[in-house]
Design goal:
heterodimer; A: alpha+beta; Alpha-Beta Plaits; four-stranded antiparallel β-sheet; 69% helix; B: Rossmann fold
Chain lengths: 298, 225
């Protein structure tokens, strides 16, 4: 630790520029990673919502509705179905408007349509299911959210591709800057390295101080970028709560484990923190390894 | 033992540093390498430490055949060799103790061994009271003493000195050579030098080089070109 600190003090500007570039890379990577995770989880959330909802006319007998339901189930395109009767629809309505007696007085179970909430096995079946339903008699309205999911899918894919390019750029940039910085430091100590080689020092012994200093900078930059990220999230938490109002839980599938990311929870934060640390350490070690290689050929 | 057998070194641009050089140096012997600048003295030292490789011929250093294509013990070989340079190559950001200790640190010696060995070596080179002093506060003679201490500490049984007195005044040069005298018979010492007085007074084996060839090998010789 003493040697790391001494080295930083001797070349403060190089160390500061290396630190800032690492911080910049890690902070932006962190923001991109978390944004993508949120988008993916919103996509997963939307996919769990009823993908097609068909409202029957109020006079439609239940036998007719059940006939449609059974035909859909036998089509092989439907994952699951939920029948909402008039009474159930009224109960939902009452629950939604419990604070508004006027609205409750105006509506009775008779005027609410029965409906089917349909979850397709794949999004591509949605237009076919909707088309089939429109051809049935006694149908009041067919709603499906294909457009929203499609748009979100396109958005997520675009952001993912952009993020990948941006990530690659950031990584290459920070590694190059770090290599340059370490090479500059090594150039100042070239005769020392030559001497160490001539008296039998191993590559590891020579590399160690440079790798340790880079690791120190990488880990410090990781901690700072995560700290600022965490503070920003806490600051924007009220805004997020109002924006995501109505969404009780957002999660992503990590090796078949549903990792909850909303509401904010410490497991997700811990994973993000550890990933940032590992990412920072890998960038720093890779750069110092490449930089020292040049001077180990004596 | 150090054996050079028909060693030739040609550099890519065509200049020949050594031309068919052969000699043997038994263990714990003292040898001077003399010759004009560019005669090949430093090339011999650099080949012993594996800094450069010969174009042809074979070199054996302390049972290591360093010219073997499969030679992979460069680090082990270098841990047996201590090197002293004309420009000292003392590490400016480390004090005297640390400069000497680095020789043992690189081989992974423990702290107590380092402390004891450095103390003993500081006494040998006459710097006992300066172990915490930084190089900037030392004279040229003292810097060379530090370099000698770094070269001889531990089990380094071959000492190579490339113009060790080249940057020193005559009196200091003699003081430095007295340290070599103390090591005589205990290590193999090869000194490349231009210093006529020192070579003549030591009466040790002298290898005279000229244009990459050994032109004289005197068992108890003086400085002659």
């Amino acid at each position: 630790m003493k040697e790391i600190w001494t080295s930083i003090r001797r070349t403060p500007y190089q160390s500061l520029s290396a630190f800032l570039i690492l911080f910049f890379t890690l902070f932006l990577s962190l923001m991109l990673f978390v944004s993508l995770t949120f988008l993916n989880s919103i996509l997963s959330y939307l996919e769990t919502k009823p993908q097609v909802t068909v409202y029957f006319q109020t006079k439609t007998p239940e036998t007719q509705i059940f006939k449609v339901r059974d035909e859909l189930m036998n089509s092989g395109k439907v994952l699951s179905l939920k029948y909402i009767s008039k009474n159930e629809a009224f109960n939902i309505y009452k629950q939604l408007n419990k604070d508004n007696p006027l609205l409750l007085e105006m509506v009775s179970a008779d005027i609410l349509p029965p409906s089917l909430e349909i979850y397709a096995k794949k999004p591509i079946f949605l237009p076919e299911i909707a088309e089939y339903l429109k051809k049935q008699g006694d149908i009041d309205e067919v709603q499906y959210e294909k457009n929203i999911i499609d748009k979100l899918l396109i958005l997520t894919n675009t952001i993912r591709k952009t993020a990948l390019i941006f990530f690659s750029y950031l990584i290459i940039m920070s590694i190059l800057v770090l290599i340059t910085m370490i090479l500059f430091k090594i150039a100042l100590k070239e005769s020392e390295i030559t001497l160490l080689r001539l008296i039998g020092a191993t590559n590891f012994y020579i590399r160690k101080p440079y790798v340790m200093e880079s690791l120190f900078l990488g880990i410090t930059a990781s901690i700072l970028s995560f700290g600022i990220f965490a503070l920003s999230v806490l600051y924007f938490n009220p805004f997020l709560q109002s924006y995501l109002k109505g969404i009780t839980t957002l999660s992503v599938d990590v090796f078949n484990y549903q990792l909850v990311i909303w509401p904010l929870n410490y497991i997700f934060f811990t994973i993000v923190f550890i990933s940032t640390l590992i990412f920072g350490a890998i960038i720093a070690s890779a750069a110092s390894y490449i930089a020292t290689n040049k001077y180990l050929k004596v | 033992m150090i054996v050079f057998d028909k060693v030739t070194k040609k550099f890519p641009l065509g200049n020949t540093a050594l031309n068919d050089v052969s000699f043997e140096i038994d263990d714990n012997r003292f040898v001077f390498l003399v010759g004009q600048s560019g005669a090949g003295k430093t090339s011999i030292l650099k080949m012993i430490t594996q800094e450069i490789k010969p174009t042809s011929g074979s070199i054996i250093v302390d049972d290591f055949d360093v010219t073997d294509k499969n030679f992979s013990q460069k680090i082990d070989l270098r841990r047996k060799i201590g090197i002293i340079f004309q420009d000292f190559k003392v590490l400016s950001d480390k004090n005297v103790f640390e400069n000497i200790a680095v020789s043992l640190k690189v081989i992974g010696a423990d702290q107590s061994e380092i402390k004891a060995e450095v103390k003993r070596t500081l006494e040998l080179v006459g710097l006992s009271k300066k172990e915490m002093v930084f190089p900037v506060q030392l004279s040229a003679g003292e810097l060379q003493r530090v370099a000698i201490a770094r070269a001889v500490i531990g089990d380094r049984n071959i000492i190579l000195a490339d113009e060790p007195t080249g940057n020193l005044d005559p009196k200091t040069a003699w003081d430095i050579m007295k340290i070599f005298k103390k090591l005589e018979g205990k290590r193999t010492i090869i000194v490349a030098t231009h210093n006529t007085d020192i070579v003549n007074s030591f009466q040790k084996r002298v290898l005279v080089l000229k244009e990459g060839k050994i032109i004289k090998d005197q068992r108890k010789g003086g400085y002659e070109l």
